[in-house]
Amino acid sequence: MVELGQWEKALSVAPGVSMKYWKKLMQRRADQLMAEDNDDAIPYCVATGDIKKLVTFFSGRGQLLEALLIAQGACEGNIRAPQSSAANHTTNDVDNSLLHKVCKDLAEWYFQDGCSVLAACCHLAVDDVELAMSSLMRGNELELAACVGIVLGEGANQSTAYCLQLLARKYMTNPTWELSADLLRMIPDNHVLLAKLCAFYPGTAAEINQLHERCGLPSLEECKVLAEEAVNEGDLFSAVKLRLLSPEPEVALQIGINHVKGTHTSASVQQLEVHRKQRFHVFFLHVLVHLLKRREVCVPLKIEQLSVELDAWRACTQANSMYVTHTHTHTLSHTHTHTH
């Protein structure tokens, strides 16, 4: 009956042979219909619980929403193949991986179409918080990403902190500088970030002190005094940071330069010189290998052989040079005689 194309009749009597044979016949029929791009293959895949084949079929046609519905239905237990309970755990893992894959593909399609919010929703549907936050930030939905991260809490702490930094950088303008400081204050371990913000602030001394107070930092003059104390105590990092916040930020550069000069002792300079020579030797060997590859030579090479070849090359070059000089002189002499 299958050879005659009477699939319905064959499938109706196949269970009389065995369920295994019926399932195999159903899969053959589904494969045939899929090769013809025929939607009639769908009920055959559903009946046998072949979710992976059905998801691949829809995905290949660009019907990602349909593929998502099938994968979700399988995860919820609405589409299930006749099987023993021992294989249920493995089947659930496969269905979950399919659902994650389809959601990721659909999210990428939405993002490429300019719908970063819908892309983030797809990632959140499968609890992929990191990719959801990434989609919102890549789509420049920073405010929404910050709100989502705050609501999600601990699972999105790292992404939320990065998003708040981007938002703070966005609002580092004269009308909204204080908003930038408030955003940075929402980040744990924000002391260095607030110091950077205040160091970039271009306002007057009174405005800078006001911003320092809002960020919990000392005033300009207090930073200068504290920086000198940090230098005396050997706290280089605090000294540079406080100097950048003081009325003389250029002094921080000098402190850093002096520290770099002090760390580069004569021994370290000699070590750097050795590394430089080693890099030159490696480069020389690299060039030599490429030159040797361009001609047929006997391997292994000996120093004496290289010396002989080098002398021969020099002699050949010198001979060519003498020939060119002689030819040029003869030509000039002939031209001079012809002119006279």
TrEMBL record:
Top-level taxon of origin: Eukaryota
UniProt name for this protein: WD repeat-containing protein 17-like
Organism from which the protein derives: Haplochromis burtoni
